[in-house]
Fold:
Amino acid sequence: MDLTAPTAALASAAADLVRLVPGKLIDPVLSGVLLTATAAGVQLAASDRERTAAVSAGAVVHTDGQVLVPAKPLAETLRALTAPEVRLVVEGNRLAIRASGARFALPLLDHTLHPGVGSVSGDGGLVSGSAFATALATVASTAARDEALPVFTGVRVRSEGDRLVLRATDRYRMAIASLPWSADGDIDVMVPATLLAEVGKQVAGVGQARLTAAENQFAVSWGRTEVTTAVLDGSYLSETKLALSDVDTRVVVDAESLQAATRRVALYSDARGVVRVEVGDSELRLRATDHNAGEAEESLKATITGGRTSPSYQSRYLLDALRPFTGEVELAIQPGMRATVVTALEPGEVDLRYIIMPMLPPKP
Structure:
């Protein structure tokens, strides 16, 4: 294999690949990047047997070929280079990385042992890259990170007519995002949230992304990138199983003002980080107290309808619930220890709902 490519483009492709498939350090083959050079350019691919990714880049290929080399050293070397062009050429049992006045060499691994990357054929559709990124920024971060509970570590991706709905929960909160999409079939899969979080970062600047689902497989493709993954069992995940019909208090308040006040008052919260939200006639009063830190309270204007239910929340969950919103939001509060639903007063292209569970108030 022998090729010449723009350094920045090749470095970007390698970096994207490593973030999508971090690799398994205990297996050198699964920690490698499979480089395939053809007349069309060069493809960089990786697999950990559960997920795969392939990223293509433009290159002038002098000699076709395929090699497997350690992924992270390749990505880090390309990122560190300042020369405008780089040459990759096989020299004996090494892949030489040549730039102006410099040479680096990576060991060749046995590419015949690499599982390769496949594609997924099935139903799916197209979504706006920016809208998909906006939805994933909130929903994917709501999933649990505890691998001991794998059913809570995914995002349910489900088509509902002309909308694509994403849902995730860690049992204490749930985020639901709905966005328009152009479908050629229905999909309903549970996708690992860690992968979708990275996908969301990479699709933010692209026009469209295609989602495809088949039995036990899911794929996202955009530009020169395609990612596939095995799916989780998550058909259970639905907000319909939550009691959301007993709302007795509705509060309209500026999201950024409430977020800022919560952040300040939470400095005085107890070990659980609990902040009490007291609902008045035309204001919210946030209170927190801790026997060691002291106490704090702050009021802000709000429009109140219905009752005066005053819940308490873990401050970090309340902050996470408010972070995606700008402008005014509505808090639909239920009495007792029932969930609160946060929504934008004027939804945009991505319709987002954030459901949080209250906490027991701090002891006086």
